[in-house]
Structure formats: structure tokens, C-alpha cells
Fold these 2 entries.
Entry 1:
Amino acid sequence: MRHFFLLLILPLTLLAHMSIAVSYPYIGAITKSIGGEHIDTVVLAKGNWDPHFVIPRPSLIAKMRSADALIMNGAQLEIGWLPPLINRAANPKTQPNAKSFLNLSQHIELIHKPKDVDRSGGDVHPDGNPHFHLAPENILILAKTIEEFLISLDVEHKEVYEKNYAAFHIEWSKNIELWKNKMAKHEGQKVIQFHDNLAYFNNAYGLKTIGTIEPLPGIPPSSKHTIELIKLINEQKPSCILHDVYHSTKTAEFISEKTGVKIILMPHDIGSLESTQDLKSLFDYLTGALQ
Ligand SMILES: [Zn+2]
């Protein structure tokens, strides 16, 4: 009888993975690369959704309820949707003060911190630009942060996480060199964006955002601002409008008609487009999109 129970318990123990909820697909991909077979990731938002405005559906609450840990982007990117999910799930392991809670933004130097913290203008990014994962160098910092986080939760598999991180670091560093070479010819190029999703990407490769279709982050286009932007484009001749996949391209098309500037869709996460199904293909796409 005792053997029977042992046989029953053993496979259950082997299957006992840590289930880690993450807000966005890119976090899931890094976490899986480092955690390997010892973890399962539960990705809350889809890559083709607007990362600022996720609907806290009941299915997401259920996912949060069964998680052993939570990793978020932070810098207020999830401010509109993750806090309500955390509250409703009432899971002690995914509360901001838990040791199983990780806010990635606290490990990255944010850029574009507004000088004026008054939010009356509607700026959705009062802590600085939160789209830091689109600089390939930052992915290495995030991977290291996640490695240390996983070790803090599961020291038993420390060596596995260290080994996985080392392998990730070697592979990703090779890619960084390839992407740098690919993007060298675009250095100094002026671009327009809808929203400054690519602040860190553009910094990494010397692209210069001279204007956004939004008058302020999170504020929809206005005719006054669009007219000013058309004037700016005619004066400064940017090479293109880099547009996210989740906002309507209607205003961009209008601007394109008036100025001849072309529109290029830029995915912001894994799954934003059919062809960007992992972290490498996301950056392969981004670094190959400009002409
Ligand atoms: Zn944003």
C-alpha cells in the first residue's frame, strides 16, 4: 500500500512547477528562457492589444488567482488594468509587497521623465517612458533581473537558472551585434510615431522622433495638432511614420496623403504581428522594417 502512495505522489512532485503570471508576452518569453522546465508562464495581455488599456476580464482574474508569482513591466504601463486584477484576485503571492512580485521598471533607467508631474495634460506616462523592452540591451538587464528573481524564489534550481541565463546572454549578445550592423545605415534618420513606443529602440539606433500623432501620450489625435504635424513634416522631411499595430492608422493615412511620408507598422511585442512570434523575430522584424 505504501508503495502505491509513493508512486502516486512522486509524479505530482515532479510536476510541481512555479506558475508565474506576467503582464506582457515579452516578459513571458524572457522568463521562460531563464526558468526553462521549472516554471510555467501565464501571460495576461496579448501582444496585439494596446498594452496601456487591457480589459481586466474574469479569465485574467482566474489566472492571477492561481499564480505563484507576478512579474510586471511597471512605470505605470499597467496602471489602468493590473491593480484592479491584483485586488480582485486577492492572491497574497501577487501583491506588490510580496517577495514573489517583481516590477521590472525598478531595474531600468527610464527616459523621458516629464519635468512637470501635473497630469492635467493627460500624460499617461508620468514616471517616464515605460516601453523600455524595445532596446535590445535592456532585454539583457531584464533577463539578469528575472534570473535573480527566480533564484530568490527557488534557490534549489539556482544552477539551472544561472546556466540558462548564461546561454541566453551569449545568444542575445550575438544578435545585438547583428541588429546594430543592420541598423547602422539608419542612424540620424528622423521619424514620426503615433505614440512614443519606440523611444528606447530609437535611442539605441540613433533614430530621432521629431513628432507624435498623439498631442500627448494617451491623448487622441486632434485636428489642430495634426495640422501642426503636417507643417513639421513638410519642413523637416522625416523618413516615415512608425505606427503601432493597435491604433487606427486613419490619421497617419491622412498625414501620409498630405505629405507623401510613408507609414511603417512596428510591432511592440511578441504576437503583435503574425511574423513576430518570439523575442528574436520581434527584433529581427523591427530592425528590418525601416527602408
Ligand atoms: Zn506608452
Entry 2:
Amino acid sequence: MPKVHITTDNLTLDVEKGYPLIDMCDEYDTSILFGCRDGACGACMVRVLEGAENLSKMDENERDFLETMAAQENERLACQCRVFDDVTLEVSE
Ligand code: FES
């Protein structure tokens, strides 16, 4: 079962393979915040410290949005990510 470690919260959660990060955050008390929940506001931006390859691939809309935000290479929108294996995240500032 994949593990999601959120360093910002010092929290590690087990999730089903393919589980949406946004649903995990709805179920547990994490520091990852959500606004639009649709890849359009940037509120949910996280930095992927380890296991980037274990998240769902970035689609064109997310890539375009992150480029517009001048995001770092390891940043993702949590509302657009599913978890397929272990990953370590921190909340982007
Ligand atoms: S909640 Fe708005 S981009 Fe993820």
C-alpha cells in the first residue's frame, strides 16, 4: 500500500494505489489547502521531495498552469495527483 509522507505535518498516511491526494487530504487533517479543486488556482501546490515518479503523470493543463506560476520543477498541484507508490511531499510556500 503506498505511503504518503507530508513533511510539513510530520504525517505519514497509507492510501490505496491510485488514490487521489485531494481525497486523502479531505479525510485527514493536513496542511495542504485547496481552492478551486480543479487545477486552476494554485492553492494546493506541493513540493515533491521523493517519489515524483509515483504520482500520476502531469497533464497539459497542469503543466501549463505550473509554467504560468513559475513553479519549480518538483512542484505539483495536489488536486491533480493520484498516488501509485510511496511519495514524500511538503507544502509549497
Ligand atoms: S485546488 Fe486550485 S489548483 Fe488545486
